[in-house]
Amino acid sequence: MGRLQSDIRAVAERMNLTPGWLNGSIQSYLDVLPPDYQTRLKTLPIRGRLHIALLHRQDIIVMKLFAGRPRDLKDVAALQPTVTELEFVRRELPRLTLLDPERAARIQSFLEQAGDDDR
Length: 119
Known about the structure:
Strand order of the largest sheet: 1-2
Largest sheet: 2 strands, antiparallel
Number of strands: 2
Distance between the termini: 44 Å
Number of domains: 1
Order of helices and strands: HEEHHHH
């Protein structure tokens, strides 16, 4: 991503995008994404030579909960996950536990609290 910064800024200026339009932090969490995430990617219409694929909401929720930073948790709250999306996260817990048991336990606590809130 570092080598692309000047190109990223040029695209932002040319297409009137905000400076942070391209988030490279996903690279740190690729192993957190469910193995089948690519089947849920949404591709936007091509703009020139720019091809954009968006993650599905449920995959973003998994990544945000795994990251667990205050801003990620605020993002999850703003997304207002559905019961179905939270169940998706719950099904991912065994795999996430293998990656990082402490973070998976934190997600489990979040899901338990979210379940309490639904009652």
